[in-house]
Amino acid sequence: MKIIDAHMHYYNKDGFVQVAANAGYENTAACWQRICEENNIAFAVAMGNTMYTSSRYGGIPPRLIDLAAPFDEENYNQPANMGYCMGVQSELINESNAEATAREFEHYIGQPHCLGIKLYPGYESVYVNDKRHWPLFELARAYHVPVVIHTGDTARPDGLLKYSHPLTVDEAAVNFPDVTFVIAHCGCPWLVDAAEVAAKNANVCIDLSGLLEGKPKLLPVLEQQAGFWRQLHTWLAYMGDYSKVMYGSDWPLVNIPLYLRMISYVIPDKQCEAVFYGNALRIFNKIGALL
């Protein structure tokens, strides 16, 4: 079965070096390509992390991807089997520069490998539906690309969870019913809330990235975290629509073969092809032209 990894990171950062080592990897382009070959990963969607783009129109430029800093806008080091979502620096956007910020994003959104927009609430102390984001939502609507939203726990203790709770996605989804929103990490640990927001709103999907860390042994994970994985299975079944669910890894956070096995345990066999491949191909609708 071919796989699309709908949520990973491709970033040259000291912290990611150690995170990758904990998962049994190196945080390098060569290592990622080996992972793809060994696990039949046909394509990956990287979330924008770098800060090396410059402003063209007086707005706040997007965070893009690169494994070799500094970022070279004209000839960046990106594999052919990878696209990216532009990261939003929400705290730097205000009423006076919001429209110009959307223009900054529009410069990239027409490029083939630019697949969507990524918000980082929790890391950024701004709610999803804050009106400073609205010009970006309008841009996503105009170009038919999804908006991926970090939800749930944060990797840093200074993150504020009130901004990253999955219920905060509901208001944006209602105000922009023709924009596709992706609840990243299934809102973990608020699985039930994420499932309900996706069940209620036709334009909300879920990715299953980052629900495990490192390279633990399989049997202890199944024994010690059995309740968590049962809950995930339960609430995905409650949502009742696996066409809204995508596999993602959050690499380099997790060991890929282990994580593929764990996610396969909570997805019905007949839904695996859609969850691991077909749904991402539809939701990130520019991928098809790149394969």
| Number of separate strands | 8
User: Per DSSP, what share of the residues sits in E-state strands of 2 or more residues?
Assistant: 5-15%
Strand order of the largest sheet: 1-2-3-4-5-6-7-8
- The assembly state of the depicted protein chains is single chain
CATH architecture: Alpha-Beta Barrel
The radius of gyration over CA amounts to 18 Å
Report the CATH topology name: TIM Barrel
Class inferred from helices and paired strands: alpha/beta
Summarize the biggest pleated sheet. Answer: 8 strands, parallel
What does this structure look like?
This protein is of the alpha/beta class and 291 residues long. It has a single domain (3-290), classed as TIM Barrel (Alpha-Beta Barrel), CATH 3.20.20.140. It is built from twelve helices and eight strands. It has an eight-stranded parallel sheet with strand order 1-2-3-4-5-6-7-8. β4 (114-119), α4 (134-143) and β5 form a beta-alpha-beta unit. α3 packs parallel to α4 and α7 (191-200) packs parallel to α9 (226-239). The radius of gyration is 18 Å and the shape is globular. Mean pLDDT is 93; it is low at 69-73.
Question: Which short descriptors sum up this protein?
Answer:
12 helices, TIM Barrel, 8-stranded parallel β-sheet, globular, 291 residues, alpha/beta
Brief overview:
This protein has twelve helices and eight strands.
List the helices and strands and how they pair.
Elements: E1 3-8, H1 14-22, H2 29-39, E2 41-47, E3 82-87, H3 98-109, E4 114-119, H4 134-143, E5 147-149, H5 161-164, H6 168-175, E6 181-183, H7 191-200, E7 204-207, H8 218-224, H9 226-239, E8 245-246, H10 256-266, H11 272-283, H12 287-290
Parallel strand pairs: 1-2, 2-3, 3-4, 4-5, 5-6, 6-7, 7-8
Helix pairs in contact: 3-4, 7-9
